């Protein structure tokens, strides 16, 4: 999967999880930027991404994620 395809899929996961078709994320988007993005929502997002990309994140993989860009890089690394 190329970077744009990964980004588009992650964008749609965010829209679905936050029930907001107008939501636009960037690589710099972080939990502070989205009102409802709390620890439970973080788990929901990661679970949806595992399902979409056929991955299983390890705690060490996700512990240091600071923004969407970090998440995109992780998905790209794990799907390569």
Automatic annotation (TrEMBL):
Full protein name: Acyl carrier protein
Domain of life per record: Bacteria
Sequence ranges assigned to domain Carrier in this UniProt record: 1-79
PROSITE patterns: CARRIER
Pfam families reported in the protein's UniProt record: PP-binding
Coiled coil: none
Ranges that cross the membrane: none
Annotated organism of origin: Allofournierella massiliensis
């Amino acid at each position: 999967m190329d970077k744009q395809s990964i980004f588009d899929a992650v964008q749609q996961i965010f829209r679905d999880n936050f029930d907001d078709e107008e939501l636009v994320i960037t690589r710099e988007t972080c939990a502070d930027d989205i009102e409802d993005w709390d620890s439970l929502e973080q788990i929901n997002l990661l679970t949806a991404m595992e399902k979409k990309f056929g991955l299983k994140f390890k705690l060490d993989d996700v512990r240091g994620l600071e923004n969407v860009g970090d998440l995109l890089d992780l998905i790209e690394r794990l799907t390569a």
